[in-house]
């Protein structure tokens, strides 16, 4: 197959981790006889520096013309003082929205090799951690109206949280479908004791529930969910939730699996073109030092092969190679443990590519 991939290297550690994922993709292409071509796309802080805009239209167009997008990370202290619409993160939000990527899948899976790196007690970790956060990605408070006005001699800020039924229904359906492919348990996480948007979520979810009688469906308030994720993560199979709750809970979920550097994600809409990125940020403090963990990005590339290109065997091959690299004792600094061998970003990428 020929596939054209838009590469957004981005800021901070972005370029280093994307380089490792490309190395692995090229090795896969060679092994399986595919051709991957790449298109460089500027987004985030580097696009602000170059074009004065975190995502120029021309860059979005390149993504829309690609078969899928692979992203490293965007943002950093250099651009922190900028007003909201000009910040690097705005480029990412415009990209998600511009590509119609409403469905964000973030797996929280404990790699047995990294069990010791989990901050949870062994008695909790032993029960296993393997769940999927299905996060709504292009609505909610991220995309409602943001404004700051002067009122009675002080500033007043508002961030509107908005959801339309069709936006809930399409992600709710992904939640049920994802559960059907896994252990058939779905938890809708919300704040229905306070928010109208959450009550609307529940009413839409109840309609969908009738279509999926095999799925064991439950609901949980987000504050309780935050607690349950550290108390007994083994109770979860699939969590479906709105944009901001999903942002927060997926960071929490990644941490208990040992390292946030390991977690990939997929963002998809109605078609097969998606965007794939590790869920961690640009880590400016370690940028350019060959210290970053490239596995989250490498596994994101694997998700792209599976979900957008239908290359299941190739994706499995990458996951197996990552397993072998971890089995061999190689660790980047974020997941280093006693008796293991510390390696850099590049060496980890080399190892995974060689183990395919
Ligand atoms: C994420 C990030 C982004 C988000 C930021 C960078 C805008 O935290 O992908 O989880 O909040 O969605
Ligand atoms: Mg986040």
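^ Assign residues to that structure.
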């Amino acid at each position: 197959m020929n596939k054209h991939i838009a590469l957004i290297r981005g800021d901070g550690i972005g370029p280093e981790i994307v380089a490792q994922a490309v190395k692995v993709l090229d090795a896969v292409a060679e092994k399986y006889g595919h051709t991957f071509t790449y298109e460089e796309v500027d987004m985030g802080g580097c696009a602000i520096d170059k074009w004065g805009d975190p995502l120029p239209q021309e860059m979005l167009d390149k993504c829309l013309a690609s078969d899928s997008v692979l992203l490293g990370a965007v943002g950093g202290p250099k651009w922190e003082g900028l007003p909201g619409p000009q910040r690097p993160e705005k480029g990412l939000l415009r990209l998600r929205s511009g590509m119609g990527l409403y469905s964000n899948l973030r797996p929280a899976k404990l790699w047995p090799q990294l069990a010791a790196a989990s901050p949870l007690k062994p008695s909790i970790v032993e029960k296993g951690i393997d769940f999927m956060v299905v996060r709504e990605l292009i609505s909610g408070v991220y995309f409602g109206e943001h404004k700051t006005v002067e009122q009675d001699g002080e500033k007043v800020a508002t961030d509107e949280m908005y959801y339309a039924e069709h936006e809930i229904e399409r992600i709710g359906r992904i939640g049920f479908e994802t559960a059907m492919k896994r252990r058939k348990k779905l938890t809708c996480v919300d704040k229905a004791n306070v928010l109208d948007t959450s009550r609307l979520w529940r009413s839409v979810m109840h309609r969908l529930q009738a279509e999926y009688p095999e799925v064991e469906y439950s609901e949980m308030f987000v504050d309780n969910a935050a607690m349950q994720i550290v108390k007994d993560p083994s109770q979860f199979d699939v969590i479906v939730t709105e944009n901001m709750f999903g942002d927060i809970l997926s960071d929490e979920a990644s941490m208990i699996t040992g390292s946030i550097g390991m977690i990939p994600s997929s963002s998809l809409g109605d078609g097969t073109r998606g965007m794939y990125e590790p869920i961690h940020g640009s880590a400016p403090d370690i940028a350019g030092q060959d210290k970053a963990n490239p596995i989250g990005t490498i596994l994101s590339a694997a998700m792209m092969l599976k979900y957008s290109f239908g290359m299941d065997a190739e994706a499995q091959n990458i996951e197996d190679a990552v397993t072998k690299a971890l089995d061999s004792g190689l660790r980047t600094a974020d997941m280093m443990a006693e008796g293991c061998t510390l390696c850099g970003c590049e060496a980890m990428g080399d190892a995974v590519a060689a183990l395919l």
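The chain has two domains: 1-112+264-356, 119-256.
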